[in-house]
Amino acid sequence: MNIKSLLLGSAAALIAVSGARAADAVTVAEPEPAEYVKICDVYGSGYFYIPGTETCLRIGGYVRYDIGVGDIGSFDGAATADHEDFSRQETFQKHARFTLKTWTGQETELGTLKTYTETRFNFANRNAAVPYNTARNSGVSLNFAWIQLGGLRVGKDESAFNTFIGYAGNVIQDTLVPYGDFDTNVVQYYFDAGNGFSAVVSLEEGSGVKGTIDSYVPHVVGGVKYTQGWGAITGVVAYDSNYEEVAGKVRVDFNVNDAISLFGMVGYGSDDNLSDPTWAIPGTSGIPGAQGRGFFKQWGGNWAWWVGGTYKFNEKTSFNAQVSGDDDKNYAVAANIAYDVVPGFTVTAEVDWAHDGKFNQFGNFNWTGADKKNSVGGLLRFQRSF
């Protein structure tokens, strides 16, 4: 029995040692730490850190589909040719857009370093270059691409004549009586004095045949704003270096309560050098003149006004309206109902009316693009924002 026990014990020891050596020979690598995307809440919701950097990035945008009818401005009821006899036919105005936006932010020893970009891709069936409209890709536009360090901003923006004082109402067709041109390269400085006071100075290039500066002298915009819980008072003044004319606007925003917000804005501009009936590029037959309108003073005559407001029925539904007019007796009314079907998806139904005070004085089309003195149109918009 002793010999048998000794043999069994020796065999068990050999197996244990062999197993231990085999286990020691297997090396299991530890998992490498994964670098997950980190949320950045310094600049608001939606930002995250770009891996390996201290830069916060946000990506957003919207997908939009418009169905327009009638004869108001850029959403004219589309005219097309019958495919059998080529007679004029009326049809819906359709417009689809995908907009991509990016924001970045990073803290530096000189202040916050920010960028913003917005690019729009369009497919529509309105084409002013041919007699009848055809559905097709209608262009890509770079609407914003600026860099800002502290209060200094440079790049592609929209004019401070509009962005600082604020666009008009919460209606789709807010420029039936226009309140200024938009696209421009800028060199701007924003100043926050605290206690609700802020200011801006903007040197701008303008855009288009008549709006782009024609010398080293830029367009200049200056503005001041006072903001409190009840609303804001803002004023802007602009100098058009091409025509040496000045325009200005004053705006008041008033928050009546949680459901009602109102605004009123008035504009005035000089036009001594803006009344030539034609203006020709060398080598061309001529281009229709500004008819009293520059890059900033887009309205007719010297003065113009815009009033409107928003009433929120509940968290999902709101009513928006705007009434406007100018010195040339151009008047417009726009009103809509906006409904948030689910968060991020809004359906808006709008009705618009415009009256041209100088119809047929400069041609067969009024200044909104329609061929009648009183124009009516409607627009149904579907928009998914993200």
Automatic annotation (TrEMBL):
Its main location: membrane. Consists of 16-stranded beta-barrel sheets, with large surface-exposed loops, that form a transmembrane pore at the center of each barrel. The pore is partially ocluded by a peptide loop that folds into the pore lumen. This is Porin. Keywords: Cell outer membrane, Ion transport, Membrane, Porin, Signal, Transmembrane, Transmembrane beta strand, Transport. One of its GO terms (biological process) is monoatomic ion transport. One of its GO terms (molecular function) is porin activity. The keyword Signal applies. The lineage of its organism: Bacteria, Pseudomonadati, Pseudomonadota, Alphaproteobacteria, Hyphomicrobiales. It comes from Mesorhizobium hawassense. Forms passive diffusion pores that allow small molecular weight hydrophilic materials across the outer membrane. Belongs to the alphaproteobacteria porin family.
